[in-house]
From TrEMBL, chain A:
Species this chain originates from: Actinomadura fibrosa
Protein name: FAD-linked oxidase C-terminal domain-containing protein
Keywords, ordered alphabetically: FAD, Flavoprotein, Oxidoreductase
Family annotation (PANTHER family): GLYCOLATE OXIDASE SUBUNIT GLCD (PTHR42934:SF1)
Domain FAD-binding PCMH-type: 39-214
Record-linked Pfam families: FAD-oxidase_C, FAD_binding_4
InterPro entries: FAD-bd_oxidored_4_C (IPR004113), FAD-bd_PCMH (IPR016166), FAD-bd_PCMH-like_sf (IPR036318), FAD-bd_PCMH_sub2 (IPR016169), FAD-linked_Oxase-like_C (IPR016164), FAD-linked_OxidoTrans_Type4 (IPR051914), Oxid_FAD_bind_N (IPR006094), Vanillyl_alc_oxidase_C-sub2 (IPR016171)
Highest classification ranks of the organism: Bacteria, Bacillati, Actinomycetota, Actinomycetes, Streptosporangiales
Cofactors (names): FAD
Automatic annotation (TrEMBL), chain B:
Domain FAD-binding PCMH-type: 24-202
Record's keyword annotation contains Flavoprotein: yes
Cofactor(s) this protein cannot do without: FAD
Organism: Actinomadura fibrosa
Coiled coil regions, renumbered to chain: none
Protein name: FAD-binding oxidoreductase
InterPro entries: FAD-bd_oxidored_4_C, FAD-bd_PCMH, FAD-bd_PCMH-like_sf, FAD-bd_PCMH_sub2, FAD-linked_Oxase-like_C, Oxid_FAD_bind_N
Keyword Secreted carried by entry: no
Length: 482, 399
């Protein structure tokens, strides 16, 4: 370890308990990547703070030493947002897992950043409430990570993303100050830009979230279609009829095949596509709309419709969809998970183009998507034992993002940019757009020490940086870490 | 070259300002009305070159909000930027220019059975002004405020560069969300020129259920009972003096059933109507308007602190409300009411911010009250507008 980092490590040791600072290379290696495992770096030092004051002290120590730092929640991110720095500090929130308050009367909860998403719902459920953002990783991901990524889930079609459910964040700013960013306070909506900034504007140490009333009823159906086009027609018809379902998910034949192999979900044989539609809300509303959804699916050519009679049957319908990512492991030695967005109406054209891409390149693509909001998760399959296969898969995966941009969509709907997609940002945004976004970063973090190298392909120079910064430029040496 | 001539070279509609066009009494030297985004960018570039202080103007419904600008050399009027650029109804998305009046937008969307789920408390107000002030009404209970509905934004920066963030898809986490940052920024970060919104279907049926409440305790009880019920209201409001009102939207069978549930819940005085009750969706009467943040449990305290006659209150279950103070109230008394409101609400993490006030009151009150993250806000402002030429002095801490 470099002398500078060593000095910082001992300073951190003095600030925190000795069991809260990790420098042992073997233990450090457990933190070398997040859910995106093809980017790795062993962190210089790992710290496990258990209070906001400790986080503030760590950030101040890093700022004084000119050392970069990265926050990490559960490490489930899929864009390398929590990828550590070999020359920096990784701040892990796993000891900040207290649910501080469940305030039913005000429909909110106050939690520490390391609290697991589903634990908020577990704590609220006895009161008839839940935390609405439901990423598929909700059993393991942290609320702090959700805030950073502005995570969503299958149900964000109706209920919105994390940004819509966070009322305030206590934040340690890059100069080590503890401030509260609240949607209810006067002034700029800094909370609004902090959420979704992928941990580049500070470390959140306490989060006030909105709790949502558990709906009176939930109704779920599975509809099987001969083709993706027919499924897409049903989706358009449902949205066009003014129905706002809680979720509409679609899977194509290849992903159904994978799910069948993995979990025997028992979806209708011969389906070219299945659609899962869930409605929730007051009973009388749901009853009327559900009948309409069923009719629209039939009109669009559904050859089989299954309606969940109870929670167990609902879980069965969802099993196939929820296992789809892991399940493709059954039909392919390796795969890439892509995350792109298109305007929903472009679904048929884009899927046809993905088919063509797949045919041209010989790379198989399984399609799973949040059909209601046009968020595609193509799974690009390859054999990592075959020379060149990974590169071909990367190319197809990248070409799919280009298709999304071409159709007015986005390069990421929920997984974030991180290190993975920073290079695609200039395809979606102009230089001026990216420069303007980074003005915010310069306001928060002029020294560029807070999770540097993420989101933006090239850092913006922030002009005169107040205070003297020691050590190398934070962006120097980035290339040899990745 | 004179500033007027320099601007006239890049913009088809430039003229000297008139005294009647003063922003809270500060008369602009010039008024420019660009007719396109490109023209707006040119105007801003020339303003930067000539070091002109710029204040954007929409339909003037909220130009007298906040504090007066320290300087106003150039009013940039958005009335010619009034196109509905795109209505992708199949995607439930619309893109509008800043000067488009909200009611014209609503008409166009309604033609295809859709709406932007934002109320328009002040008729005539524009898209740009609504976003710049973060304005919303009763529907905020379910749908939030502009920050929750803006999915893409185009702005012209202080230096004349055009910058976009977000896009035209609802689900999108690529890059920082400048849309949320610009909502409620009062023209101090840049000129908003185009906004893309997510839309919702116009509901097939709607009904209001209202009940009378005799005192703050009853108001609290009624609100809590609706809040924790499963009826999923689109809006839940308290309206002084003494009404709790709920808006239900959905399919006809659903709305009827839910209205029935609510009348049982709310007791004898409950009434179902198909028109909005008095005071719905407008700011309370008064010449001083105070915006309050008050979570549901703060409601009875808010009402107790504003129990004087002639003081009007509206409050939304999202935890926000407005207090209107009468024109006869002496400036010192306004300051006292504001002070006691702030003390009361502070205990509930609530705030009170003056939105507009008559001239004699303006000098006597602190418009904003405590602003916890002010230092950070100044640093963001310095990045976007290093010369402090955009609506200088209009915002918190003199920003
Ligand atoms: C199987 C699987 C399924 C998934 N499904 C979904 C899905 O449906 N929807 C979805 O949106 N995502 C999904 N994800 C991605 C991921 O789970 C989310 O992005 C999640 O929010 C990350 O949380 P985390 O605690 O693991 O954060 P990490 O991976 O640890 O960190 C993510 C980012 O947050 C920052 N961060 C963490 N804590 C803080 C903090 N306290 N303050 C500031 N910044 C912080 C990090 O620096 C990093 O940039 C999935 C991932 C997996 C592995």
């Amino acid at each position: 370890m470099e002398a500078e980092l060593q000095a910082l490590a001992s300073r951190l040791g003095a600030l925190l308990g000795s069991d809260q600072v990790i420098t042992d290379p073997v233990r450090l290696r457990t933190y070398d990547c997040d859910g995106l495992t093809n980017h790795r770096a062993t962190p210089g030092v790992v710290v496990l703070p258990d209070s906001a004051e400790q986080v503030a002290a760590i950030v101040r120590a890093c700022a004084d030493a000119g050392v970069p730092y990265v926050a990490r929640g559960s490490g489930t991110g899929l864009s390398g947002g929590a990828l550590p720095r070999a020359d920096g500090v990784l701040i892990v929130t796993s000891r900040m897992r207290r649910i501080l308050e469940i305030d039913v009367a005000n429909q909110r909860a106050v939690v520490e950043p390391g609290v697991i998403n589903l634990d908020v719902t577990r704590a609220a459920r006895p009161h008839g409430y839940y935390f609405a953002p439901d990423p598929s990783s909700q059993q393991i991901c942290s609320v702090g990570g959700n805030v950073a990524e502005n995570s969503g889930g299958a149900h964000c079609l109706k209920y919105g993303f994390t940004a819509h459910h966070v009322l305030a964040c206590e934040v340690v700013t890059p100069d080590g100050e503890l401030v509260e960013l609240s949607a209810g306070d006067p002034g700029y909506d800094l909370l609004g830009v902090f959420v979704g900034a992928e941990g580049t504007l500070g470390v959140t140490t306490k989060i006030t979230v909105r709790l949502t009333r558990v709906p009176e009823t939930v109704q779920t159906l599975l509809a099987a279609f001969a083709s993706i086009e027919a499924g897409g027609t049903a989706v358009s018809a449902i949205i066009g009829a003014g129905v706002v379902p809680a979720a509409i998910e679609m899977m194509d034949a290849l992903s159904i095949e994978a799910a069948e192999a993995a979990v025997r979900c028992g979806y209708p044989p011969g389906a070219g596509a299945v659609l899962i539609v869930e409605l929730d809300g007051p009973e009388a509303e749901v009853a009327a709309q559900f009948a309409e959804v069923e009719r629209l699916c039939r009109d669009a050519g559904a050859f089989e419709i299954r309606i969940a009679a109870d929670d167990a049957e609902r879980a069965l319908i969802w099993t196939g969809r929820k296992s789809a990512f892991a399940a493709v492991g059954r039909i392919s030695p390796a795969y890439l998970v892509q995350d792109g967005v298109i305007p929903r109406t472009a679904l048929p054209q884009v899927l046809a183009r993905i088919d063509a891409l797949s045919a041209e390149s010989g790379v198989r693509v399984a399609n799973v998507f949040h059909a209601g909001d046009g968020n595609l998760h193509p799974l690009v399959l390859f054999d990592d034992a075959e020379p060149g296969a990974a590169e071909r898969a990367e190319d197809v995966s990248g070409a799919i993002l280009d298709l999304c941009i071409e159709h007015g969509g986005s390069i990421t709907g929920e997984h974030g940019v991180g290190v993975d997609k920073a290079r695609y940002m200039p395809r979606m945004f102009s230089e001026a757009d990216l420069d303007t976004m980074q003005m915010v970063r310069c306001g928060f973090d002029p020294a560029g020490l807070c999770n540097p190298g993420k989101v933006f392909p090239t850092p913006r120079l922030c002009g005169e940086v107040p205070g003297v910064r020691k050590g190398p430029h934070p962006f120097a040496g980035k290339a040899d870490i990745f | 070259m004179r500033p007027l001539d320099a601007l006239a070279k890049v913009c088809g509609d430039v003229r000297p300002g008139e005294s009647a066009e003063g922003v809270l009494g500060v008369e602009p030297s010039l008024v420019a009305a660009p007719g396109s985004v490109a023209e707006a960018a040119e105007v801003m570039r020339v303003a930067a070159e000539l070091d002109l202080a710029v204040v954007p103007r929409g339909a003037e419904t909220r130009l007298d909000w906040g504090t007066p600008p320290r300087r106003c050399d150039l009013l940039v009027d958005t009335h010619r930027l009034d196109a509905l650029v795109e209505h992708a109804s199949g995607d439930l998305v619309a893109k509008a220019q800043a000067g488009l009046p909200m009611d014209r937008l609503a008409e166009a969307l309604a033609d295809r059975g859709q709406r932007l789920a934002l109320d328009v408390p002040l008729p005539g107000s524009t898209v740009g002004g609504t976003v710049a002030t973060g304005a919303a009404g009763p529907l905020r209970t379910l749908f939030g405020t502009p920050r929750d509905l803006v999915i893409g934004l185009t702005v012209v920066r202080a230096d004349g560069q055009i910058a976009r963030s977000g896009g035209k898809v609802v689900k999108n986490v690529a890059g920082y969300d400048l849309g949320r940052l610009f909502c409620g920024s009062y023209g101090t970060l840049g000129l908003i020129v185009e906004v893309t919104f997510r839309l919702h279907p116009v509901p097939a049926a709607r009904a209001w259920v209202t009940c009378s409440v005799g005192d703050p305790g009853e108001a609290h009880e009624a609100v809590q009972s609706v809040l924790h019920s499963p009826v999923a209201p689109s809006a839940l409001e308290y309206l002084s003096p003494g009404t709790v009102a709920v808006l239900l939207e959905g399919v006809p069978e659903g709305v009827a059933a839910r209205a029935g549930q609510l009348t049982t819940l709310l007791g004898d005085t409950a009434q179902v109507t198909d028109t909005a009750p008095d005071g719905w969706g407008v700011y309370p009467d008064g010449t001083t308007l105070i915006d309050v943040t008050a979570p549901p449990t703060a409601l009875p305290h808010l009402l107790a602190a504003t129990a004087q006659p002639e003081v009007a209150v509206s409050w939304n279950a999202s935890g926000h409300g407005h207090v209107g103070l009468p024109s006869g109230m002496a400036p010192a008394e306004v300051a006292a009411v504001l002070g006691s409101l702030r003390d009361t609400l502070a205990a509930h993490k609530g705030r009170a911010v003056v939105q507009y006030a008559p001239e004699d009151v303006r000098g006597e009150v602190d418009f904003w009250g405590p602003v916890p993250a002010l230092a950070l806000m100044r640093r963001v402002k310095d990045q976007f507008d290093p010369d402090h030429r955009l609506s200088p002095g209009r915002f918190v801490g003199g920003i």
